[in-house]
Amino acid sequence: MSIEKIHLRKLLRLFYAKPNIQRRILLEDVRTEEKKDLEEQDSGGDFHGPFWADAKNHVAGTLDLREQTKIRVASNKTRQRLYPLLTNGFLSVWEGKIRWRNEKFEFNPKTAKGQFSLDELGAIVKVENILAVKIWDGTGRAIYPYFAENPVLPIEGARLGFWAMQEALMEFGIDDFRILDVLRGAYFRPVDIPLQGNERVLFIQKYRAILTEWKKIRDERG
After folding, report:
1. pTM for the full model?
2. What is the spatial distance between Cα 95 and Cα 31, in angstroms, rounded to a whole number?
3. Residue closest to 166 by CA, chosen among 114, 203, 207
């Protein structure tokens, strides 16, 4: 998937990555685009997809994430380090902050997703693979995962993430949104990080800089 049509979590990673890491990610993207038949190598790709599916099934009550993690690691040793860290990070938040003190909630098996266009950049941002639940008071929660080991998602990044979710997920209100930095077990809420009104300008500014660097790398490769 081109940088011009990108998942929000990958874009947030690019926004805050150190220049050398940012360049490496963009170079990988250019190489992928050149091959045409490869799918996007998001921050984790096939690695994070199975984990997040397992986390959702844990929330739904159809499996135990700790036990499933043992199975995943046994079947693929490349998961031996990060997979348990993702599991511990997720469960530290789910069991400690999200379960609303054991009050009833309803898991939504239908994955909420959306996208929005930034016409001035000729770009589309995708917001997908939301963990959606309805809690005891009838309100919804749309929990968006950030998986990257590096960089840590900063407060500003969470704020830009909330703005993007609001643009893409019209069926939810801003107070329904949550962002989970899974590895750190960091849980962001709009009530703690309110929008300031400059999110669109800042988002476009950062995205434009990424696109400029991406096109530069693409031109260098001829």
Report:
1. 0.90
2. 41
3. 114
